[in-house]
Amino acid sequence: MPHSIWLKAASTAAAVTLATATAAHATSAPEPAAAKNASATVTLYYDDSRAGGWEAAITAGVSSWNSNVDNVKLVEAAPGARAEIQIVASSGWPQATLGPVRPGGQVRVELGSQAVTQGHDKTRIAAHEIGHSLGLPDTKPGPCSQLMSGSSAGTSCKNAVPNAAEQARVESAYTNGSASRTPADGRILVDAP
After folding, report:
1. Of the candidates 63, 65, 66, 108, which has an alpha carbon nearest to the alpha carbon of residue 84?
2. Taking the complete model, does pTM exceed 0.90, yes or no?
3. Helices (H), the chain
4. Which of 18, 71, 156, 190 has its CA 20 to 30 A from that of 142?
């Protein structure tokens, strides 16, 4: 075998051996933290098409939850699409089904105008009722700093942000990218004083 052919064959064999050895010992790069969090996020859709007059309050309440809880994302459903959280306007006191609602499940939120007539803040009402859908019961009586204290905090309370304990409880209910094993229990919580 001529020397140049032998040299070419040996170089090719060495390159193949090196590539195979490198591939065998290669490890994939760690998944970025943002991608890990995104994969563990539960997306819940809401339909507010029957909540006329509450649009701004619902948007602000949803934004409050999306800004303060990492593993749950609330997204407005496309018209006609199925949604886990049905939000409607009513003439009575606000009320909601106690969750946590699972993806594919369904709960109902009624944003009652009677509370607004009494002087309660619309955005706080919306955020509070959405909190029920995410699995939080009332904490009445309670201070304004607790979103789930609801009407017991008084009409001067405008806080629509869940406190650290409320945030942690929701995040715990949706750990590992799914709602807790306990589905919405079907209880309706009416938020009259």
Report:
1. 108
2. no
3. 3-25, 33-39, 55-68, 113-117, 122-133, 164-173
4. 71
Give the three-class secondary structure for 88.
strand
Catalytic positions, written as ranges: 129
Q: What does the angle CA 61 – CA 55 – CA 52 come to, to the nearest 5 degrees?
A: 135
CB atoms within 10 A of CB 38: 13
Give residue-wise pLDDT tens across range 140-187.
999 999 999 999 999 999 999 999 999 999 999 998 766 554 555 567
DSSP 129-181: HHHHHTTPPP--S--TT-GGGGGGG-TT----S--HHHHHHHHHHTGGGS--S
Which sign does the torsion angle of CA 39, 135, 161, 120 carry?
positive
Query: Distance between CA atoms of 128 and 149, rounded to whole angstroms?
Result: 8
